[in-house]
Design a protein that fits this description.
Layout (H helix, E strand, L loop, with lengths): L2 E5 L4 H18 L3 E5 L7 E4 L1 H12 L11 E4 L6 H6 L1 H6 L15 H6 L13 E5 L5 E2 L4 E2 L4 H8 L7 E5 L5 H8 L7 E3 L3 H10 L2 E3 L4 H9 L4 E5 L21 E4 L10
Parallel strand pairs: 1-2, 1-4, 3-4, 5-8, 5-10, 8-9, 10-11, 11-12
Antiparallel strand pairs: 6-7
Amino acid sequence: MKTVYFLLQGQFGNNLFQYFAAEVLKKIYHYDAVQPTFYINLEFNTVIDDDKFRIITTDYMKGQPPHIDTSKDILLMGFFQRSDILKFEREYLRSLFHTNNHNHISNRIKISSIINHQSTHEHRPTERDVTLHLRCGDFWDHAQCKSQIFHPDNIKAMLATIPYDKLYIVIHTPEQQWERDYYAMYNDMNPIWIQGTLADDFDFLLRSTTLITSASTMCYMAAFLGQATTVHIPYNYFYEGDHNGQRLAEFDDTICTVHYHLKSWLPPM
């Protein structure tokens, strides 16, 4: 029995990307199972990083996946955030997101437990509503003065083009005053604020049919796996080109609109 292992790095959204990357390689090279791991074993595994994954999937989409050493288990070490392979294998990957899939995406979370989660949120989005995800926190790099937080003026201009009944804004719990200040810039939109556990918020995003993503991998995965029929993706500098082998843009031409020229917002220095 041959296994594709993925080294656990990052948070929930990162783990979903790593899991689906493992499923892609399992399919390409006819392995038997996928499994998360905390251990690095370079001697007994064929190691695939972000750059090798990009090469493998690019060639695979052309019908010519490269040869690798398949006599060993595969160990994935990276983040594998590429919309091109997600787009190419969307039907297959979404077919894995079901209640009978008991594979782990981390040491304690299974695909089935994500789907079976019973949310405690009072509100439920309808097809006439729009959901905006905002994330602050570590998306501002104070040392380098770089931001992955989108300017409110750009987001509001985007919202002005979307007809909706209710605006839901899903946020992480603010810890700093500048985060509270940023969220307060949306109060004039009269939103319904959604703020709960990770599981509850992910469930809400999965149920949203019109979704504006943040730079969060969790939100992107919710758009990819959920009920969204319209997805607006503000493009983030972090994913431009092949930075670290990563690129996240549209995953479905029929439902995704990518907004390339949004400004970033920085907290007052």
